[in-house]
Amino acid sequence: MTFTGDERAQSVQVGAVLLFGVLIIAFSSYQAFAVPEQNREVEFNHNQQVQTQLQDLRNAIISVPGQPSRQAVSVQLGTRYPSRLVATNPGPPSGLLYTDGTTNESQNLTVRNAEAITPETADYWDGATPRHYNTGAIAYKPEYNVYGEAPETVYEHSLVYNQFREGNITLSEQAMVDGRDITLVALNGSLSRSASDSVTVDVKPTSQSSRTVRVTNATETSNVSVSFLSRLPASEWRALLDDEVDPNPGNKSNNRYIANVIEAEGPGSLYNVTIVFERGVNYRLKMAKAGVGTKVTAENDAYLTTVDDNEISVQQGGDGEIVLEVRDAYNNPVSGVTVNGSVEGSNTGSLTPDTESSDSDGRVKFVYNASQSTATGTYTVQFSLDEIDGSFVGETPENVSIPVTVTEANQGSGGGSGNSGLIYNEDAVALDSDGGPDGGVQFSVTNEVGDTITITTVAIDAVDENIDFLSDSYRNYRDPAPQENELYIEADTDGYTDFNGGTDIPRVIDVDNQERDLAGPNPVMSDGSIATFHLFEFERFGVQTGMNGESVTITVTYELSSGGTDSKMFTVTPGGANTSAQPNADFTITSNGGESNGKWDFDASQSSDPQGDIAAYEWDLDGDGIFDDANGQTLEKRRVSSGTKVALRVVDAEGNANTVRKEVP
């Protein structure tokens, strides 16, 4: 047998070689095309994850105004590819997380033309001095092997967005402007981390509180504005702020207060964006400073301001508490700062203590003492962050001057009416709930009716007719509470009414008005109990106004548990009325007998005033507690139903007021 010419073994070898070649080609194709595509998907998914983590970081930063403790946010800078048996992977991709401009003092956020409503705070927020705050951005720049078109994700000025070569895509809403609320959080510190693993970013509140400062435009021709450097042009910021831009500038009823968003040239590739706000509006400015990484700088004291009344009244032999607050440039409290105090002149009273250190809330408390021998009059109490000497100037940011009036012992405050029924306790004070002027009024009444009563309505009528609006400073999603609703009555059973956006006054408020979203039950007072009324906050010409020394007539209508309805009228004056200067209201009711046809004459000529300068006679002829029915010393032939409680309010040239009510026969 011979095998000459047999080629079967060569055929097998060739087949093996061809199969191996196919495998090599398949593996090469897998390595060249499938592996990169799979790795690109890994990188894309990682980028989506980082974008979510940057939004978490943004939320931690913008929550600093209400967050006293630091927050930690984890950011996964890189990722890992899946292990492969035959194919190979490139090195793991990484990313760079870095701050930009946060240590460059020339890169600022600037507030201009903002003047504080509170006088002492206005020493710092004077409207003429631009206030600059260094801030910048924090960004994530990926370093992927395959996903080359990945964006840079940036946080700046409450906003997170993706920055592509072709344009930008926002990932969050802006949180700087919400109606009249302006919230500014500066970013401080230095951070630069490049890695494949995750890093933890600590967000440290370096200037923080929930305080707000009410500001408005400093002059009739200026606008409150906020300027900042941004990678986004003004056109994109205007689109982001579209819901806040007023399409009808000057329309105060649509809750939109941005007049314009403009742009100027900035350094490098940055835009200088300015948000211009409308004039004649009282804005609530809240500020904070968040630190990340290293080189985070602390904030020192910037100014001293009042917390309660800007002036107090003390009887001889009495005392009064004065509370001040040390604040930094962000309007937030600074602890551990020494405040010095003194009383100007001799025999003008004293302070206890004369030096105090600010507590954790930045506050210092002093007590002004008037001895029995202290002369009556008005004196100036001086406070300063520096030593007090002959060069003291009360209008500088570090100084505060408060007038104190010393009155004769046992001098009443006036404003009451009667000593039975529902008794006003002569304790009205002006308070503030949000860092503005003392626009709220708090007072109490005692039930001496001899029965349990249920309060049904409260009529509010300010003596100054220009005080024409009542609006609390909080949104309706908060739970009802004293000083957070237009009307809140603390009694055995509390009652309250909240008006979304406030309410015009004078007004009769139905406490349990079921048509309102936020209206509680009618307050109940047992016999002998005390109820505290909170009215927050009064406005004059659309701007919150201090109520110290301003008089408001209150009429409380109530039902008795034994049956029947009654009411009580009194005038409250926060800080106390000067009874020696207060007018006396009185009038007569007469008719022409049977020929009067139900019409009556009212004569207030027997009213009197110590200075003889009664300026107004105001009448409530329908008994609702609102003095808008007539004016004048005498009224003739007015048709008023029998049994109606007609009221007269007389006001002198200094604004002192007194009321009296009489029932028509």
Class per helix and strand makeup: mainly beta
Strand content: 35-45%
Between the first and last Cα atoms, what is the distance in angstroms?
152 Å
Task: Please state the average pLDDT score.
Answer: 88
Biggest sheet descriptor: 7 strands, mixed
Please compute the radius of gyration using only Cα atoms: 35 Å
Kindly state the percentage of residues in helix.
under 10%
Shape: elongated
Q: Count structural domains.
A: 4
Spans of at least 5 consecutive residues whose pLDDT stays below 50 are: 410-419
Number of separate strands: 50
The number of helices is: 2
What does this 3D model show about the protein?
The protein is mainly β. The protein has 4 domains: 52-82 and 90-292, no CATH class; 301-407, Immunoglobulin-like; 421-572, no CATH class; 588-664, Sandwich (Immunoglobulin-like), CATH 2.60.40.10. It is built from 2 helices and 50 strands. The strands form 10 sheets. Strands 1, 4, 10, 11, 13, 14 and 18 form a 7-stranded mixed β-sheet that branches. Strands 28, 29, 30, 33, 34, 37 and 39 form a 7-stranded antiparallel β-sheet that branches. The protein is elongated. Mean pLDDT is 88; it is low at 410-419.
What descriptive keywords fit this protein?
2 helices; Immunoglobulin-like; elongated; mainly beta; 7-stranded mixed β-sheet; 9% helix; 50 strands; 665 residues; 4 domains
Give a short summary of the structure.
This protein is mostly beta strands and 665 residues long.
